[in-house]
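Dear U.,

For the methods section draft, I wanted the exact inputs and outputs in one place so we can describe them consistently. I've listed the two proteins in the order they'll appear in the manuscript figures. Please don't edit the token lines directly; just add comments below if something needs changing.

First protein:
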Amino acid sequence: MFILTRLSDLVTIQPTSFTVTTRQALEDQINARYANKVIHKVGLVICLYDILKSSDGLIGSGTGDVNINVEFRLIVFRPFKGEVITGRIANSTPNGIHVRFDFFDEVFLPKDYLFEGSVFDHNEQVWVWRTEDGDELFFDKNESVRFRVEEEEFIDNTPVDPALRDSLADADMKPPYKIIGSCYQSGLGVVSWW
């Protein structure tokens, strides 16, 4: 579910950060730049893991900023295909179930990837699995659900002019990273069922 990713970057330390150690200033700048951001084709960055090496700082002309080439590793959330994960049901729609973690909300279980015999109850706004025995098992909101990762989607969102941002519908904005999961095997689904 979590991986270490190695990156190199030019980090700028401003004179206001000269009161702390260089290492602490580098860590603060790297976390500010990468933490809680999606790197395309890499995953969701959680935080800095460690700094592997850094160059001597070069002072910028006129600004007093120090530029340092840094090689570091980041902790990244990127589950592998086939991994079984547990999350919480955020909501249900006729198209499927949205699942969330404490730190990530873009998980979707499409209706075609649910147990055979699952139907959407429009009155309750939940999916119901009708088993062969005639039992009805509900995918209730906020229940813990275990699912298998089937695929991941990375969307390279281009920047939008701030003047046009208000006119765009929320439906036009797709998440930069999304996980598609399934619940059609024994042991998957709502945890309390098993």
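Second protein (the one for the lower panel):
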Amino acid sequence: MAAGGAPARIAVLDDYQGVARACADWSALDGRADVTVFRDHLDDAEALVARLLPFDVVCVMRERTPLPAPIIARLPNLKLICSTAARNASIDVAAAAARGIPVCNTGYTSHGAAELTWALLLAAARHVPAEAASVRAGGWQTTVGGDLYGHTLGLVGLGRIGAMIGRVGLAFGMEVIAWSQNLSPARAAEVGVRAVDKATLFATADYVSVHLVLSDRSRGIVGADELAGMKPTAWLVNTSRGPLVDEGALIDALRAGRIGGAALDVYDVEPLPPAHPLRTLPNVLATPHVGFVTRDTYAVFYRDTVENIVAWLDGAPIRVTEVRPG
């Protein structure tokens, strides 16, 4: 309950598809909380603060709405932050902790992102959007597709998702190579792929797929030099985080035709601005950060969110993010 025994006021943000209520059983909050679901997205800090001022609990979907220290400081009623997935770098957990505000996370399923990676890669290789548009327009064949069998897939990162992508590449008969800053040949061999140095990966891969966690060390890890080292027919696929790739350098390479194209689900700024060049460049296949947007994943997200709120109302918060030193 909120102060004075009134029901807690809960804001569920950025429910783009309007499915938050249907993806979980919220009845455990009946009589204990008033839930307001917002389907729109606010970029403006003043408008966001004005919206959130009355709420005791703010529930965010991944990094769609960041909660940095200046925003948290202006929300005097805020008592709990619920965030989907296991981590959220866009929330200042230390600033919340200083106010005694727990930040509670949820479970996560990674198969959706891996599956979308292959959806994008296959669609790019076989020009699926262009051919589907041709059929709808009354036309027929207009392109010659690229092959996967016998060609090289380069993985930047070989964690859980990268390994899933690599195993599928092997099933397609691809040569799969991988690089990351700490990747060992032994780890690559466990997945059945070959570890190479960074320059070799970008120079030899026909498809480069990025699978790293965004951090200060990985930000911009695919830059102008890496893009310049790619084959002119190669495609870059990024379903991880936009800032892993130098967006300006990528746009320059795409405009100049120095690489075959890019298949992207993530961007530096999301939602992608309406006039952004990545929306219109002919050698870009773009989706609106839907890698994690699946029925199964949303069921986990919202189920755990409800559980987190109930636990907090009971005075024993669960799945609380720890404040990391430094």
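Candidate sentences for the figure legend, describing the second protein: The chain has two domains: 3-109+294-313, 111-286. The chain has a mean pLDDT of 96.

Thanks,
Y.
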